Amino acid sequence: MSHSKCKIWVHAVFATKDRKPLINAQIIATVHDTLRKQLINTGCFVDCIGGVLDHVHLLFLLNPGKSIADVMKQIKGGSSHAFNQVKLTSVPFAWQTGYGAFSVSESHVPRVRAYILNQNEHHRTVTFMDEFNRFMAHYGLPADENG
């Protein structure tokens, strides 16, 4: 091959520190817009962003020149810094240290997109920890006992 080709879809999910319900209706658009800008700044294509009061989901194409760890560090650190610069919340904003990042096959992108964009409905019956531990089980990873 004369050129390298890469297309890796990532479904990422991460929570606010201590899963505090900080992302209310008044700021959710700002939170999502800032995360989108941070992802674009890493060279990733952003498909969609969704979430509820205490966590977000992102679907994006990974920039082949970046590691997932570098992308997540940039978007989480950059967004929390931006939120705190403008005092977006009444308390200092922070994301939890960890995150989940899962590969998505091309054929499953529409289903994952619908799932991300339907978070409000989904979380009427499922807690964040139940949801996250289902991801862990699906991907054959140990459950997160600490949240």
From TrEMBL:
GO biological process terms held by the UniProt record: DNA transposition
Gene3D superfamilies: Transposase IS200-like
Pfam families: Y1_Tnp
GO MF annotations, alphabetized: DNA binding; transposase activity
Domain of life (superkingdom): Bacteria
Domain Transposase IS200-like: 5-119
NCBIfam families hit by this protein: transpos_IS200
Name this polypeptide is given: Transposase IS200-like domain-containing protein
Organism (species): Spirosoma linguale (strain ATCC 33905 / DSM 74 / LMG 10896 / Claus 1)
